[in-house]
Structures are given as C-alpha cells and as structure tokens.
Design goal:
5 helices; 5% helix; eleven-stranded antiparallel sheet; disordered N terminus; mainly beta
C-alpha cells in the first residue's frame, strides 16, 4: 500500500491557540493528517466599483522569464480582490501592533483613538503587512480590539529568500469600538526551531477617514458574549446582526471537514453522517440562524503548498464572518436581562474539536426610545436532511445530499412605528468523494448553496434583500508510481444579491471569485530535489448596478505571468 495523501499540510495544534501547524514533507507522504458573507461583501460594492474605474484598463504585468521549475524564491503573495475604496478626506493612522511571532505568546497592547480626525469616520481601513523567510508552514491568526474580533487571517508559506504580503479590510462597522481606548490582542501562533525557521513579522494599522458613513451600515454598538456565553443588549435595540468567524482548523479531520465520510467507509477521516456541516446560532436554546460554512483552504492545503505560494485560495488571508440577522429576536433580547448566545457546528462527531467560532453582535439603537418592545412571531425550522451513501469498489465513493431551512419573523415597536422583519434561509450541499486504496487518489466535487432573504416591512414600502451564495470545490490529488504528487483543483466563491422595494428591483450585484491550480512535486526527498512545477490563476469579478471590477492573475513556477484588469 502506497503512502496516503495528506490533503492539508496543517497539523496538530489546538484552535484555542488559533494556530495552524504543518506536517513535515515526510509526514505528508505517510499519513492523512488533514486535508456579510456576500451581503457583507456587497454593501460597499458601488464604492469599490467606482474606485476600480480609476485603474488602468490593463495593469502592467510584473513579468520575467518563467523557470522550468520552482526555485528558492517566488513572487510575493497577492490576490485579485478589489482594493478598498478610500474617501478623499482627511485621514489619521493608528498602529495596533508591530511585532514578531515566534511561539504561542499573544501580542498585547493598547489602542488609543486618533485625536486629529474626530470620533465619526466615513471609513476605517485595517491593513496588515507581513514578512517571513526560511521554512515555515501556514498559521491561523486573529486580531482583537476591545475583545471584538476585527480580523481572522492565515499566513502564506515563505520562500527561503523571504516574502512580503499585505491584507486590507474595511472595518468601518466596528467604529463604535474604535471610539474609546481599548486593549489589543493579536496572535499568529508559530513554531521556530532548527527546522521551522520562519519568524512571522507583522504590522497592523487602522486608517480613519473623516466624515459620516450611512447609518444603516454602522451599528451603534458592537458587543461580544461574556465567558458564560451570555449577552445583554441595550433595551432600545431595533436591529441586531450577529457575525461568526467560523473556521475548521487546529488539527485533526475538521481542517478538511468536506472530505469526511460515514463510519462505514474505509477512509482516514470519518464522521457519523459524513461531511455535511452547518453553523447554527441559538438564542436561549432556540434556533435563531443557520448557515453554510465556507470551505476554507489554507496555503498548505490539499497536500500541495506549490498551489498557493503566489495566489492563495479565496478568503485565505481575509476570513469573512458568517452573518445572521437576529432582528426577529430583538423583542425577546430587549428585556434588560442576559441571554445565552450559543454557536455550534452540526456534523462534528461528539467530543471532537477543531472548530473556532467567535461571535460579534452588532446593535442598532432607537435614539428616541428608552425601551423598544417587540415579539418573535415565527421560528420554524424544516427537517434537517442529511444523506451520505457509501459505494464500495476499486474506486471508493461517497455521495452526499443534505440541506436545511429556517424561517424567523418578528416585530419591534420603534419611535418610527412598528417594523416587521422576516428572515428565510435555505442551505444545500451536494458532493461526490472518490478515492482509491491507500488514498493515492483522493478527489472531491462539491457544491454548497446558502440562500437568504431578509424582508423589512415598516416605515414605507417593504424592502427585501435576497442573497444567493454558492461555494464550489472540484479537484483531486494523486500519487504516481514515481512518487510524484499532483494536485489539480478549482475553487469558487460566488454570490448574487438583489434588492427590491415594494416588489421592484432597486439594486443588484454579482460576485464571482474563481481559483484554478495544478502543481506537482516529488515526495520523500529534500526540498531542493522536489523538482516542483505548478500553475495557478484567479479571476475576481464584481459587477452590478454601479459598474464592474474584473481582474485576472496567472502564475507559473512562482512567477507572475499575467495581471490584467478592466471590464
């Protein structure tokens, strides 16, 4: 029996340390160790699209001769995602952290608001700049300000000569937290020794732009549950949105949960009912929201870091939170007492760890009412369907078909009248997982859909935002008789959003972020004898009522061969 494929280079450490540790190349060949949201992406779409128009129709590629195989250095990591649109107003910058990570010790500091830009900002932009050289594996990290998670990220794997990368994120929604002095905590857990030599250096800054953002986009407060998972909202709350940074990581099979098979199937990662995962949020034990987790792939994923050295998988550097509209529960939560807010992941075998799900709760308040009353009028969950069928053979196979639906509704009596909110969400997951003896071939073709409709009726015609999210993963890893490991993989992150008022469309947007990669290297040899080759590409398209953004990247053997933008 040949060595089993390792779908991810991640291994071993706990998620409580918020760290992804990698298996060594030898371990990778020996064992199978591991393999909002659109609505949050799209509110700033028009601003992003407008900013993209200022770019040249065709970016000047940074090209050089393509080598026959990977060398000791490659292009710094980059993504095709759009830049953050920045207002042409006065700005102020504050440094949150400037440090190095060598172990599991969090960085701790203090944030003080900028004095020269007031306490109201049209936009706040977070930027993280990172450096690492030598040998190191992918790590998962977080950044907290005042206990609020404002960034979850993972790191690229370095070249011996060293790389630099950066991440930018619009964090305007956390403005309420930034108005006061706050504790800062950041961690990218790391191992540095004679083998893992890469010290991760980071600098994180906030840039504030004067002005006032639309009130609908910026909550009055950002809360986090207490250690006992309880939360007390202001009694005049009229809108509530919870966001959950859910990631399967930290070692074990949940790092590549989408490959799990039923207990009856002969595969290295098993779960009672297969790969279906669903992130649920409950209020006082009552189901309040459901969502499909995004199938994150880190930069050692699918056994092949050569796929990701230049272009990472979608969302790898900026892990986006799942959003849940909890406004139907506002009447219940506004009684001034603490309420339990619990997040769980359906499908994880009992007693098995591997998921992290920190929660922020965004609250909009009624400035003209001391107490907003209301009522939950509907909380109806359909039966959770989850079928994984194992078919034995020379090529083993598991077919999964699963899904769930939840509808919640409620009203609040505000100073501007009664406002009714209805949230309907439907999830579906289909996948075909095939593998051979010893897992020398291991492939997956999977699709997840997460359809959500939020209707707000009150103070004018009813307004509905309908969001259709689709995540796709299609690829396989094989080990040939010559000990050459090859991974061919395509990933998709897509979303369509339509806004209507009184039944008539008022806005639309569509996101299509597609990654493709094909990389091969020799197992069980020193790094300089791997003779690795690989190509990767990403096309990020975002278009809608305000215009469009379209950028394509392509690489070969670590060299950037294409960088084009323009609609």
């Amino acid at each position: 029996m040949r060595s089993r494929i390792v779908m991810s280079m991640l291994a071993g450490t706990t998620l409580l340390a918020s760290t992804l540790l990698g298996a060594s190349p030898a371990q990778a060949a020996m064992a199978k160790a591991q393999a909002a949201v659109a609505k949050a992406q799209v509110p700033a779409v028009n601003a992003q699209l407008a900013a993209s128009k200022t770019r040249a129709a065709t970016a000047e590629p940074q090209l050089r001769d393509t080598p026959a195989e990977f060398g000791t250095d490659w292009h710094d990591p980059l993504t095709a995602a759009p830049p953050i649109a920045r207002p042409a107003t006065k700005s102020c910058q504050v440094t949150l952290a400037d440090t190095e990570f060598r172990d599991f010790t969090p960085y701790k500091g203090t944030y003080t608001p900028p004095k020269a830009c007031g306490d109201r900002w049209s936009k706040v932009v977070l930027r993280l700049d990172g450096t690492v050289a030598g040998r190191q594996y992918d790590r998962l990290g977080y950044l907290h300000v005042g206990g609020v998670e404002i960034l979850r990220t993972s790191t690229p794997e370095p070249s011996p000569d060293g790389i630099k990368w950066s991440v930018e994120k619009d964090v305007t929604r956390y403005s309420a937290t930034f108005r006061g002095t706050q504790d800062v905590e950041m961690l990218i857990g790391n191992v540095v020794d004679d083998t893992y030599t890469g010290v991760i250096g980071v600098k994180a800054t906030l840039t504030f732009y004067e002005g006032r953002p639309p009130a609908a986009q910026t909550p009055d407060r950002v809360l986090t549950p207490a250690p006992d998972a309880t939360l007390t909202t202001p009694r005049n709350t009229e809108r509530i949105v919870a966001e959950v940074y859910a990631t399967g990581s930290g070692g074990g099979c949940e790092e590549f949960w989408y490959l799990a098979v039923p207990d009856s199937a002969p595969y290295s990662c098993q779960a009672d009912k297969g790969p279906y995962r669903e992130v649920q949020i409950k209020v006082d034990g009552q189901l309040a929201g459901i969502a499909a987790p995004f199938p994150n792939v880190w930069t050692g994923g699918w056994s092949n870091p050569f796929l990701w050295y230049v272009v990472p998988a979608p969302r790898a550097f900026d892990v986006k939170p799942i959003e849940y509209d909890l406004t139907p529960f506002a009447g219940l939560l506004n009684d001034g007492r603490p309420h339990h807010i619990d997040v769980s992941v359906v499908g994880v075998p009992e007693g098995q760890s591997g998921w992290s799900a920190p929660v922020n709760v965004l609250v909009w308040q009624d400035a003209r009412r001391a107490h907003v009353t209301g009522k939950l009028t509907l909380d109806k969950a359909g039966e959770l369907a989850n079928s994984s069928t194992y078919t034995p053979g020379s090529e083993e196979r598991v077919d999964t078909d699963a899904g769930h639906r939840l509808t919640t509704a409620g009203y609040v009596d505000t100073s501007h009248g009664r406002v009714r909110t209805t949230v309907d969400r439907t999830l579906a997951n289909t996948s075909v997982h095939r593998w051979t003896d010893g897992e020398n071939m291991d492939g997956l073709d999977a699709t997840w859909t997460d359809d959500e409709s939020v209707t707000v009726d009150g103070r004018g015609p009813a307004r509905t935002t309908a969001t259709h999210r689709t995540y796709t993963m299609n690829g396989a890893t094989t080990i040939g008789t010559d000990d050459r490991l090859r991974t061919v993989l395509a990933l998709g992150d897509r979303a369509a959003v339509v806004d209507t008022r009184d039944g008539r469309r008022t806005g639309r947007s569509r996101l299509d972020d597609t990654y493709r990669g094909d990389a091969t290297y020799t197992l069980n040899v020193p790094r300089d004898q791997r003779h690795a080759v690989g190509t990767s590409s990403e096309r990020y398209r975002l278009y809608g009522s305000g215009g469009c953004y379209d950028r394509s990247l392509a690489t070969a053997q670590g060299v950037l061969t294409e960088d084009r933008s323009g609609c």
